[in-house]
Design brief:
Helix content is 39%, strand content 13%. The protein is an alpha/beta fold. The chain has helices spanning 4-16, 21-28, 45-63, 78-83, 96-101, 111-120, 137-157, 176-183, 234-251; strands spanning 87-90, 127-132, 166-169, 187-193, 204-210, 221-227. It folds into two domains: 4-28 and 37-63, no CATH class; 78-257, Ethanolamine ammonia-lyase light chain (EutC) (Rossmann fold, 3-Layer(aba) Sandwich), CATH 3.40.50.
């Protein structure tokens, strides 16, 4: 018996054959459900099924717990976690429910995690990368294994020192400030899962700041969002992150004081103005 996942593309293909060339061109430009048609006053059945499928994927992405345990279904892959010597710390949120209800707790590391970072991490690096689950573990699992090697290789090519990479459970963007205070890097980068929508549950954001401090806000940070297969590719994201980090180091500034200048290799990448990341 064919699954729902198998049937949806077949139904979509049958409907596509009835569309005019103009409508096909319009729909090819965006993942949004434009000109989807209707049955009476309601969506067509295949559109309803697609929406329910996307909504279920979004809920799963938000509710799923990040898993880095060995000998289990490791979200980032056991070999990847071992290769990069990843270790886990946690915010002050004690559970997923508390994390969702109390965003403020996700902006601060708990005492044990602060001690763990102080013990295991080297301070004063040029680039410090952290991985946060945010509001989509799915995005972290899909994008980080492709993006992280590109970032580290590019940083080493530029002669930068890179700090020990770690993963933060129940993470909000504001935790960048504590990373800056504890580890004093020149540039801190937080790769964090965006709140999923009905277009994709696999979108990652990269928040960056020059020497982040306790009282910093979003005005002190730069953002590259929509990192996923139909948005900004891993290669484009890596180049943009490294170029921005280079500008931060040279100008000793970030956020609203620093505008991203796209190079020819990144000028075709989408530059979003809105992010749905967990703040």
């Amino acid at each position: 018996m064919a699954s729902c996942d198998d049937e949806l593309p077949q139904r979509r293909d049958a409907l596509e054959s009835d569309l005019s060339e103009l409508v096909k061109k319009v729909r090819a430009q965006t993942p949004a459900r434009l000109l989807a048609g209707r049955s009476g006053a309601a969506y067509r059945t295949h559109t309803q099924l697609e929406l329910r499928q996307a909504h279920a994927a979004a809920r799963d992405a938000v509710r799923t717990e990040l898993n880095l345990l060995p000998n289990s279904t490791n979200d980032l892959g056991e070999e990847f976690a071992r290769q990069w010597n990843l270790f886990e710390v946690c915010s002050q949120a004690a559970s997923k429910d508390e994390y969702l209800l109390r965003p403020d707790l996700g902006r601060h590391l708990n005492d044990a995690s602060r001690a763990e970072l102080s013990r295991r991490c080297t301070t004063g690096r040029d680039l410090q990368i952290a991985i946060g689950d945010g509001l989509s573990v799915t995005a972290v699992a899909r994008q980080v294994p492709q993006l992280l090697p590109l970032l580290c290789d590019g940083a080493h090519t530029r002669g930068w020192s890179v700090g020990e990479i770690f993963v933060i459970r129940y993470c909000r963007v504001g935790i960048l400030n504590q990373i800056g205070e504890l580890l004093t890097p020149k540039v801190a980068v937080l790769l964090i899962g965006e709140r999923p929508g009905l277009a994709t549950a696999e979108s990652l954001s990269a928040y960056m700041a020059y020497q982040p401090k306790t009282l910093d806000t979003d005005a002190n940070r730069n953002l590259i969002s929509n990192i996923h297969a139909r948005g900004v590719s891993s290669e484009q994201a890596a180049r943009r992150i490294l170029d921005l980090a280079d500008s931060m180091i040279k100008t000793r500034a970030s956020g609203c004081q620093l505008r991203e200048e796209l190079t020819p290799s990144t000028q075709n990448a989408h530059v979003p103005t809105i992010s749905r990341t967990a703040r």
